[in-house]
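Our preliminary data section would be incomplete without showing what the modeling component actually yields. Below, a chain of 121 amino acids is followed by its predicted structure, encoded as tokens that our downstream tools consume directly.
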Amino acid sequence: MKFKFNTILVKELSESLKFYTDILNLKPLDKFSPKEGINIVFLKDDDGNKFELIENKIENKSFDRKSIVTLGFDVENLDQTMDFLKQNNIKIAKGPVTIPNGRFIVIEDPNGVGIGLYENL
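Predicted structure:
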């Protein structure tokens, strides 16, 4: 078995797409609308890992609580990453936290999805 992609339901596709491309540097791979009111974008990172963002304006999904989804990314330099996030007005929700093999912070996307950013030491 091989991992294929993560799916994230989003409130506002354009806002989420901007976050994932501008802040996490993911690249758009494909964009389509299988039917009116449903918009899907696939993104990929430099290693080819894929992420699917789905905006569903037909069903009134509840976004009242934080997402239980968490994504993890490796970064080369956590201090530089934190500076970049600060410059882009992205709040650090947790950290930095030191762990045995490095340190990490957690940020959130516009939908409350936790994003762990890890620096290996």
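The chain has two domains: 1-58, 66-121. Residues 28 and 43 are 4 Å apart (CA to CA). Preliminary results of this kind motivate Aim 1 of the renewal.
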